[in-house]
Amino acid sequence: MTALKTVAIVGGGISGLATAFSILERSQQAGIPVVCTVLERSSSWGGKIVTHRVGELVTEAGPDSFLSQKPAGLQLIDKLGLTDQIIDTNKTTTKACVYSQGRLRELPEGLVVITPGQVGPFLRSGLLSPAGLLRMGMDMILPAGRSKEDESLASFFRRRFGRQAFERMMEPLMAGIYAGDAEQLSIKATFPRFPDLERTHGSVIRGMLATRAEATVSRANGRTRTMFVSLKNGLEDLVAALRRSLTDRGVMLRSGTSVESLRVRSHELGRWTYDVMLSGGSALSVDGLVLATPAFVSADLLRPLTPLAGGLLEQIPYASTVTVAMAYPASAVGPGVQGFGFVVPRVEQRDLIAATWTSLKWPHRAPSDQVLVRCYLGGVGRESVLELDDASLVTRVRAELQRICGLAAEPTYVEVNRWTKAMPQYVLGHLERLDEIERALSRFGGLVLTGSAYRGVGIPDCIRAGAIAADRVVRHLAGERVREM
User: Fold this and answer.
1) In the prediction, which pLDDT does 483 show?
2) Ranges for the Amine oxidase domain (predicted)?
3) Residues 436 and 309 occupy one common structural domain
4) pLDDT < 50 regions, the chain
């Protein structure tokens, strides 16, 4: 009979909870009995997934949706029995806008994939001048880059599409996902698909045209979903369902428990016992250990074991952001409020990064007589705005909304959510840095890192990373020598 094994997961965000869920699945499949404990420093679970329900309003303090094209999110929701709670974005003719040169301009659907039928919308949008549109189309004839070196987002998109297309469209859409600076972000670590298309097809546009046909066939074989999806009553229902499932299956969830340090012991080559030293002086000894904490927290814990890994983890920078949600009487909202929202290019030098008309984008977010908006501020190079108090932040946001879309009414509800050092930055050399971290940890079998700091910041990315971490831990518990990140 296989001996009972023990695993501790440090961090109770979506990464840690999803890892615990996958460990239960994989250990059962492998026939290995496992006792799993999840340790969370705060009193709440889910990390940045935080839903507020105030009357009929449903607001998200952190992420408000996830990509349906990445299957890990939908698969986990199905396993948890929440599929009937999935909601798609509302149908609307205008989906997104860009604030450019003094006014909101509709972002043409397709964006990068310019076919003859799509040239008209690009020209009418006024986002690009005829010269800028011509330069963007030159991607079709420019030779593919030959260098295998890492390249920044800014460098790649300027090289393929020109300065104007980069500044007015690519930068606010893509760099905004990371709240980062496109001059610093690694294209290989953030959007590897684009250099892959360039390398394979000689052109990003040609590559997207070729793969679009494949994607259409794939969508026809399954249930059609909009690109982004959410849950009817908010994403915190995903966290609640995970907690229920884990607790029902014997996982110990310990909130309000800080991990002070780690110690290791070995009685045979390559086999370790990890002593997790907890606040209050107690300890937890386990056969497998997963750190699902921010990179800078993992750095502090690992530095005594391996200074090299600790130093490398500390080099992963983080950005701070803030979201401001406000509700308005629908009767006070003018024609400038339409579609799902808008993004603001960095070159516009505005405080606002983006805004989502939450109740126009999603059903079940506000009563019909109210309009709910969520505004985004902060990020790399713009973090000074977080020094303002809440009242000053709201004043600043309201002034921005009035200038950009003419919304001057008094909000009936306001909430401010600050996220300090919450968004990891995949800067140049990120993937090489991960390889170095993995080599530095190679002697510690059963010790695994997971979370948004490494290979994807979205909810499906974190769920998938948790499954990979779980697989590595269970394989180690089964006696295999495993070492890949």
Assistant:
1) 53
2) 14-473
3) yes
4) 112-120, 216-221
